[in-house]
Each structure stands twice: as structure tokens, then as C-alpha cells.
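[job 4471] stage=fold_predict status=RUNNING
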Amino acid sequence: MSADKRDRSRRGQDPHREREQARYESPIASREHILATLAATKGPVDLERLGEMLGTDGDEDATEALRRRVMAMQRDGQLVQNRKRGLVPVDDDALVRGRISAHKDGFGFLVTEDDEADVFLNARQMRRVLHGDRVVCSIVGTDRRERLTTTIASLERLRQEVVVSYCRLAGVSSFGARENESHEVDPEELRRFCQIMVDYTAMGHFEVYQRIIEGKERRGAVKEAAADVYPAIAETTDHLVDFNDEHESFAGSEAEVATLAEQLPRLGEILEIRARLEDQILAALAR
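[job 4471] inference complete, writing C-alpha cells
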């Protein structure tokens, strides 16, 4: 049997087909069957491919019904969709429920309903929710070690975004060339830079350093590294937060642009110092 025919044959394997027929004039695959089909497939599957696997392709009504059912399953936390629109079933054990608490600087938290720690949400994630929303989210990584690895990778990725955004703001070709090239400030990049920078500093504090600050970190190497460098990291945080607050109402006047241009070399130096110090703690955490 060909792979296509084998996929199509799954349409008749829905154990809840009779239940769906009793509910709907034009029954669609049950939620259970959709989840089982996706779970048996290697990797994410987009809606079109899922329709082919369930045998709804070519039938506009059935395709629309499947689309609506998939949307409902996403809303109820049974499915998630990645950036390439691939659908992935959610492990209920990895779900966290709670309410959204928004911060004035764009980021926020999922305040959980159980004893789990609150979940940090960056500004991009917060664009999909509002303060006070009750939501269900999926946490990547089922144990603390795996979550820590994911957090470190996310922090490093955000830091790289800060560097790229800084170069665009300062009008330099690269971060390393900032001391040799003349700065041509692009005020339009300021808001984007500040948002990424706030996400970066907030994630570092709430997802990495707060555990150390509160004395919950037991590993000696991490505590030793933190004792050596965290006070200096905290100073860079203060500097970055002050920079954001100072330019929060930036209007692009000649005086404001001139002040911004004067501050950028020092800002680049602060970012470089922070990255160097931060790497010492992240290396200790990754061991």
C-alpha cells in the first residue's frame, strides 16, 4: 500500500466516528482521532497535510469543518501551532494554567493557579494576550534541567537580537566596528531596540538570576560565579533600565537625537561588559 493510501485509510479508523455522526450532519474526525493521528506522525503537520491524512482533502465543507475543529483544539490547549504552521499535540502534563499579569514595559507573567513558579512572557508573547486573561500555556521541557537549557538558549538569542538592533540604531556595520565607525543614529530603530533590550534584561532577571538572588541555587560553582559577577550585572541592568526610561517619550527632536548619539558608545560598552559577565554565570549553570 502506498503512503498516500495508507494515510487516507486512517479516515475509517476513528473509534469515535459513530459519536460524531450522531452529533453532526457532516461528521468530522473526532478530537481523539486527530490527536492520535498527529502523535503517530514524525514531526509537525500543517492543516493541509492533516486533511490529506484524514481524507478530507477535496471536500470543501469537510476541510472547513476540520479547520474549525483544529482552531477549537488550539483554543482549548490540545494543539499548538509552530512558526511554520505545523500542528503539534500538547502533553497535558506540560500545561500550566493561570492569569496574565502585564508590565508597563511590555513583558509580563503567567501567574499560575498552582504552586508552580510564575512564567515569564516577553513582549512578543504578550501581544497575543491582555492583562487579566485566563490562559493555558505549554512549557517546553518537562524537567528543570531541560527548561534551564531552553532558557539559556533563549537568553543568548535575545542578547544577539539586542546586539543586531544596537547596530541598526547606531548605524554601524557590526558591534565590533562601533568604536571605529562614525555613528549615524536612526531614531526609528530606538523603540524596537528598547523593547528587545527590556525583554532581554527582564528575562535574565526573572528567569535566571532571581533563583540565585533568592538563595534557591544549590550548586557551588553557580553560587561562586554569581557572587563574583552578579553585583556588576545588576549595575548594567540599572544602566539599561535608566536608558529605556530616559528615552521612553523620545520624539526625535534634534536635541534628543544629539543626546542619544552621545550615549550610544557608552551603551555599547555596557552591553559588552554585561555579556562577558553573564557568560560566566551561564557557563556555570550549563555544567
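[job 4471] summary: The chain has three domains: 3-89, 92-138, 144-286.
[job 4471] exit 0
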